[in-house]
Specification:
The structure holds 2 protein chains of 2 kinds. Chain A has a 3-stranded antiparallel β-sheet with strand order 1-2-3. Chain A has 4 helices and 4 strands. Chain A is 42% helix and 27% strand. By secondary structure, chain A is an alpha+beta fold. In chain A, α2 (31-40) crosses α3. By secondary structure, chain B is α+β, with helices and mostly antiparallel strands. Chain B folds into 2 domains: 9-82, no CATH class; 96-120 and 150-168 and 177-318, no CATH class. Helix content of chain B is 38%, strand content 16%. Chain B has a 4-stranded antiparallel β-sheet. In chain B, a hairpin with a 7-residue loop joins β6 (244-261) and β7. In chain B, α2 crosses α4, α3 crosses α4 (57-66) and α7 (190-198) runs antiparallel to α9 (282-294). The chains are: A alpha+beta, B alpha+beta. Chains A and B meet through α1, β1, β2, β3 and α4 of A and β1, β2, β3, β4 and α7 of B.
């Protein structure tokens, strides 16, 4: 088994970076949020499964000492789905890869990925909204954790 | 030799029904929901995910419920479930430098860059039973801190690293061995040992780690840094060729600073022990880091004298699914086995009696 590494041809390319951003946002969206984002887009175009939603495992790796050689430290459930919009045989395929076993989420993520690759503006606005909600959750968690910050300096007169 | 028995189907069916009933408890009490288990028995769920070696909160909560709170049984259930799923991807190594911490402490540096954060810890509680919890009611809520939270948290061990006072972490991108695909073989490289320890039984590793502190291969550890938080998981799907984030996982990481080593060629420097586990599992991550370090005895030229330094002993007995299976198989009918032993001992007795009479 080899370690999958990003293809240097696509790494750093702005189109890839944009897609990586929305795929990350879609993967981290709460189940309800993703459904709401799809609903906000109104009638979805018809699509065919290139690969129907399938649940399996992702082997998770860490690094020895945080930065050293990789080691496997467990697995996680992941669900993937690939769609192609109907009447768009030459069009892009939409990929959904989300942790967990929720097939609807994987399908919704794949649909949105396809729409976003076609430059759908409504979908792009939904990504901004989802990303803002995620940033707010992260900031709120950090702000709650920060209440327990210890400043040991205040205990020592130096 | 184990000889199987047949029959007992009716009794087994009845036993399943009794198990269902025992699990449910008093029907007058509301039934536990998975959301309650995963939201309120968080650390039980975390332990089941870590030792079950499968990150899925909902499944782990289901396993805890099904196992009536027997966590080792729940771990077994989760392990059994994982064998039904295909492997779809391998992740890129998670980047714990970019962890979004909810807790971060160091026992070595009080003035840790980025600050220390206690988070939701038992550490400074009085360990007095809180009878307020016995009654349902309002709980304390936390008002978020007003000042902008620090997101950047450099590693405590970097301070030592910059001065060259601790061993360097060897950079390497070789594909690590995988216990779930290839059986454990000795000698085991460090990556394989860590995979075994990450899913190993917390109690077993805790006892081994404790033994090293009590002098059975002392490694003079300091908790350099312990952090708990969320890290992104990225995979590179073959069809796409670029890294895709598929979500995040909560993990606990422990970096131990251990007794230093030096030689004529190398100046004295501290050594490292590493622990990384799913969920909030500080005791497990610490025990793992202690045992990781003690198992490096051979590599660091230390004399192997104690159980915690013996990789074959440690790695072969760390898995509680295997251990529990082998110990508990003794409950299965061994009637034929036992009969043959019984016949043997009777024959020996008879022989002895005859000899004595002659």
């Amino acid at each position: 088994m080899t370690v999958s590494v990003p293809d240097p041809a696509t790494a750093g390319d702005p189109a890839t970076a944009a897609r990586q951003r929305w795929m990350r946002v879609l993967a981290k969206a709460m189940p309800g949020e993703l459904a709401a984002a799809c609903a906000a887009l109104g009638q979805m175009p018809r699509a065919a499964f290139v690969r129907p939603p399938e649940t399996g495992l992702a082997l998770l790796r860490g690094r020895i000492g945080g930065r050293g050689a990789p080691f496997n430290f467990g697995e996680a459930t992941v669900t993937r789905c690939v769609v192609r919009l109907e009447g768009d045989a030459a069009g892009p395929m939409g990929f959904g890869y989300v942790m967990g076993r929720d097939k609807n989420r994987a399908e919704q993520a794949a649909m949105l990925d396809a729409l976003l690759q076609r430059g759908n503006e409504g979908a792009a606005r939904q990504i901004d909204k989802l990303e803002a909600a995620q940033a707010a959750r992260i900031a709120a968690q950090a702000a709650r954790a920060a209440t327990s910050k210890v400043d040991f300096f205040t205990l020592v007169r130096e | 030799m184990y000889v199987a028995v047949k029959g007992g189907a009716k009794a087994i069916e009845a036993s399943h029904a009794l198990l269902d009933q025992a699990r449910r408890g008093d029907p007058a009490t509301p039934e536990l929901s998975l959301a309650q288990i995963s939201g309120q028995l968080t650390l039980a769920v975390d332990r089941v995910m870590a030792e079950g070696s499968l990150y899925d909160r909902e499944l782990a909560a289901l396993a805890v419920k099904q196992a009536r709170g027997d966590l080792v049984e729940a771990i077994f259930l989760l392990r059994a479930y994982r064998t039904t799923l295909p492997r779809l991807a391998e992740s890129l190594p998670v980047d714990t430098d970019k962890m979004r911490p909810i807790r971060r402490i160091s026992a070595a540096y009080k003035d840790l860059p980025g600050g220390q954060m206690l988070g939701p810890t038992f550490d400074y509680t009085h360990r007095l039973l809180d009878f307020a919890l016995a009654a349902e009611g309002k709980r304390k809520t936390v008002e978020p801190a007003a000042d902008a939270p620090q997101t950047d948290c450099p590693r405590a061990l970097d301070i030592l690293d910059r001065e060259g006072l601790i061993e360097q972490v060897a950079e390497d991108d070789a594909s690590p061995p995988d216990l779930t695909r290839d059986p454990l073989q000795f000698p085991a490289e460090r990556a394989l040992r860590l995979q075994n320890l990450a899913r190993g039984d917390e109690g077993f590793l805790l006892a081994l780690g404790y033994s090293t502190q009590r002098g059975y291969s002392s490694t003079h550890p300091f908790a350099g840094e312990i952090r708990i938080g969320d890290v992104d998981v990225e995979i590179v799907p073959e069809e796409l060729g670029f890294a895709v984030c598929i979500g995040d996982v909560r993990v606990t990481e422990c970096e131990m600073i251990n007794q230093f080593q030096g030689s004529r060629e190398k100046p004295a420097q501290f050594t490292r022990g590493y622990g990384l586990v799913f969920g909030e599992g500080e005791r497990k991550a610490m025990a793992m880091a202690l045992v990781d370090r003690s198992l490096r005895a051979g590599e660091l030229g230390e004399e192997r004298t104690s159980p915690a330094q013996d990789e074959e002993f440690v790695l072969s007995h760390a898995d509680n699914v295997e251990a529990s299976g082998f110990v508990q198989h003794l409950k299965l009918p061994h009637y034929v086995d036992f009969q043959s032993e019984l016949n043997l001992i009777r024959r020996i007795r008879a022989d002895q009696t005859r000899e004595a009479a002659e």
